[in-house]
Amino acid sequence: MRALGVGALVVAWAALAQAQPAADQKTPYALAWVRDDGAESCPAGRDFADEVTRRLGRSPFDARADRAIEIRVDRDGAAYRSHVIARERDGRVAGQRTLSSPNDCAPLFSATALAVALLIDPEATLHADAGATQAVAQFEVPPRPAPSAPPPPEPASVPPPRRAPTPPPTEPAPPSRNDVGSVSARAALAIGVVPGVVPGAELFVRTRLGDGTGPGLGWSASALYLASGDASALGTTFEVGLTSFSLAALLELVDSRAFTAGLDAGVHAGALRTAVLPPPSSGTSVVATDPGDFFYLSLGAGFHAEARLTRWLVLNARAGALFPLLRRRLEVTRASTGSSAETLANTEVWLQPAVGALGALGLGVPFR
Fold it and tell me: Hey, what domains does the chain have and what are their CATH numbers?
């Protein structure tokens, strides 16, 4: 009996859709998806639009369309309900249905997507899952009223009835972003972080918090390797490089389907790699006062941007500054032997700057 009821309900929706002109099957609809109190666990409007698009193989929605499909989801006790209304260009109700599903919103979500897809294009090849079939069985199909005879003409003295105002349309669902972050491999260039201007490489991961429908917060993590830069004094050369890891908070000022940009601030920690080259003269001994690797800790801030090139490729860029909390001083002690005495002198080879610049550019892959 349930299978028979499901089939009848699906046919009813298909008949309603076929009653419209064939050309209208390709005309887009504006979608309005509203979740009342108690139905917050149901998916958002952008997820519903994606599900109908998946079933039809194309997107039937456009916020600027004249026709509209309005869906309101609520909860009555343990049951979830969706009220679906299809409106024509003049605001007339072309069809409406109420669906329900006990205890879980997932079957209701699938059934509503199936019903709307059939309404938009009854000739499409659709595949309903078990959850959708169970919820479609709960459709409430009101009987179609019998045609009535036209009313008699009113006397000329009686004014025509005032037409009820069309209710304002609800706000359409915002466009969805299919990805919430990306993983990128980037080439880096540093100035003043280690001696001179040096290249490097960086592995960068970022993601956003929340549902991703507008500007918001996120976080990022990265692993950075900088090649060694040279600093020399008294014929002795220090090679200084950097390996560090960072964790930063992101403030997305622009966050759309094709472009993301904002500010970031975080902490960088790692090691300054140091090595001392031997002096050229055999008559002079030069010894580093504190050789080896040093703990590196700094604060960082900058501007980041990401452009989506294709479905699976993004271009990622960043420019920022580093402010070391522990500034390292590299010195050497030079001992010179002469005919009468030996002299010692400490000479500064390199002092870590109070601020350095770091830029990066690379390609990445978005993820959901």
Answer: 2-136 (3.40.50), 181-367 (2.40.160.70)
